[in-house]
Amino acid sequence: PAPRRRTRHFSGNRESVKHGEQGHEEVTMTTITGLKSLSEESQIPMSDMATAWILAQPGITSVVIGSTDPEQVYRSVHAATVELPDDIKAKINEITRPLMEALGPNLDMWANQENSRIR
């Protein structure tokens, strides 16, 4: 939905967007498509793959996950127990690298570097 498209992934010309940057819609969609294909090929649900990949990163010891019902909590707990094979982690890194490079070092997804709330 349009109100959800406020991050720097999307064009700064969209309604409710405040970052003022060009956005990276094409590479974002390419990344999502690649991750979806990897999820299907590996038979690992995307949500499990995402949580397991984050937890596999050096220095990461926990993940904050929201939920709207008990079933999502159970799925999230399960996702935290998934061990990704090294080849899957490497493929995720390969698929996401162009988007990470496009977004750059600014960790604030809602503001440009100048107005970033993260210092």
Number of helices: 4
Helix/strand structural class: mainly alpha
Helix share bin: 40-55%
Instruction: Please count the beta strands (DSSP E, at least 2 residues each).
Output: 0
Overall spatial form: globular
Content of β-strand = under 5%
* Main sheet: strands, sense, barrel: none
Instruction: Give, in order, the helices and strands.
Output: HHHH
N-to-C span: 29 Å
Rg calculated over all Cα atoms: 16 Å
Poorly predicted ranges (pLDDT <50, ≥5 residues)?
none
Overall mean confidence score, pLDDT: 91
Chart the SSEs and their pairings.
Layout: H1 25-42, H2 46-55, H3 70-79, H4 86-103
Describe the structure in your own words.
47% of the residues lie in helices and 0% in strands. It has 119 residues and is mainly alpha-helical. The longest helix is centred in the N-terminal third of the chain and has 18 residues, at 25-42. The chain starts with 24 loop residues before the first helix and ends in a 16-residue tail after the last helix.
Give keywords.
mainly alpha; 4 helices
Structure, briefly:
This protein is mainly α and 119 residues long. Helices cover 47% and strands 0% of the residues.
